[in-house]
Predict the structure of Glucose-6-phosphate isomerase.
Amino acid sequence: MPSYRPTETPAWKALEAHCTAIRHTHLRELFEQDPGRAGRFSLEAAGIFLDYSKNRIDATTLGLLLELARTADVGGWIGRMFSGEAINLTEGRAVLHTALRNRSNTPVRVDGEDVMPAVNAVLAQMHEFSKSVRSHTWRGHTGRPITDVVNIGIGGSHLGPEMATRALAPYTRDDLRLHFVSNVDGADIGAVLRRLDAETTLFIVASKTFTTQETLTNAHTARDWLVQRLGSEAAVARHFVAVSTNAGEVAAFGIDTRNMFGFWDWVGGRYSLWSAIGLPIAVAVGMENFERLLDGAHAMDRHFRDSPPAANMPVILALLGIWYRNFLGAASHAVLPYDQSLQRLPAYLQQADMESNGKGVTRAGEPVAWDTGPVLWGEPGTNGQHAFYQLIHQGTQLVPVDFIAPVESHHPVGDHHRILLANCLAQGEALMRGKTAAEVRAELSAGGLSGAALESAVPHRVFPGNRPSNTLLVDRLTPERLGALIALYEHKIFVQGVIWNVNSFDQWGVELGKQLARAILPELEPGAAVGGHDSSTAALIRRCRGGN
Ligand code: F6P
């Protein structure tokens, strides 16, 4: 059977024709024509309200996009993922982050074996451990309680825990501080260790493979620092725990495997915060709140698995993304949280989205002839408004936007939250409506400007509008809502991968750099032979080692 190529389907071709017809329709017109538009194009699921009415779509667009999803067999793939089929073909693995938060506890089988007992056992182990640290039962080598926990990991073993711990800061305690070290740049670990007391510091070394160069380098530095400060190798047992799938390497590092929290190869790194990789979150906010995070994700999983495509939030977000990427030519997608605690969400989603769908071949290994994942980026509003929003409003690129905001704040300080929300809503409205030349002229002449001065000012002040955005609101950023929000994006990414016919669960594109770095590392020793490189790389190696 020839493999599915989305661009060759009737649904794709119909969307292309439709795109030509609708491309110049302005969102203003669509709102004017249909007073019920906001209601028609909005959804609520797992405590998240999505208004997608400010997208450049009409009922026909949505119908055709849903037809594309049907052609790509999105429903079938959802079933395959949840049932534990090995859909990560290049690694021969199931994709079961949903089992990690399967709060219904119904059996989920991999190779015939129910994984839920093992999932629950690790959750119980996390519960026990986080409770002992938080209650000061877990003591350091010298008998003092733990005040600082340092997570050492990178990529999926870093971004999720860091993002969620910051997002749930209102649920943390001041007497237990979390730190994150990821970069192999010594400045990262140096800045953290400088502030810490070895007697009261606990390190979580988080690595699925336990072979990642950056993580192991940082972990060895932390270990040396601790042993030097406490004067004994025996101290490692009370100050280091590991999260990994690789017990052999954990033991080789010198961590007692009784202090190891396991997970499984069917958990992708960037989908792993729900596993023991979430241990720093559980330590920071307590296991009850970590479980609430799982509950929220599970609620979104059920919505995703059981809702018809037209009422399915991840499917709708995915289809809108496809519409902009493949039909309206958007190369990037901005995620703009109006919540300071979500400051690391864009970075987290960068890995989730770009490592998943930044692919150039189909599942069958044929080159794709269509665009796949966009560049994902973002910053919390309102900071972005005073930095890059200019380009989104008046630049030459189309940048679809997701605004995310909680209706209520955990920090009710004066008028801050109302001001924040006003800005969020205003940005969506401004992007959608724009400001016409006639409106600008009327404003300027009301302000006393006229003639040539007025006319020369007009073009700079016109906003084209017709720039799309989704607005996602939660009542409050609770652990449940955060869980649902992350699961929403995970499933959106999955649906897009299905439509693009790529494997969203491998990441071969990170390997070449690792391989070449291993070769260059010994060549940075002064006097070592430098070979097998292009003239640029060879000269740069020599310059980095001082010209010799
Ligand atoms: O290099 C990319 C990657 O493999 C990610 O997919 C992963 O999240 C990260 O490295 C860290 O890997 P590990 O958890 O095995 O240290």
Observations:
- Residues 154-157, 207-209, 212, 215, 269-270, 355, 507, 510 surround 6-O-phosphono-beta-D-fructofuranose (CB under 6 Å).
- The chain has four domains: 8-91+292-433+467-508, 97-290, 434-466, 510-545.
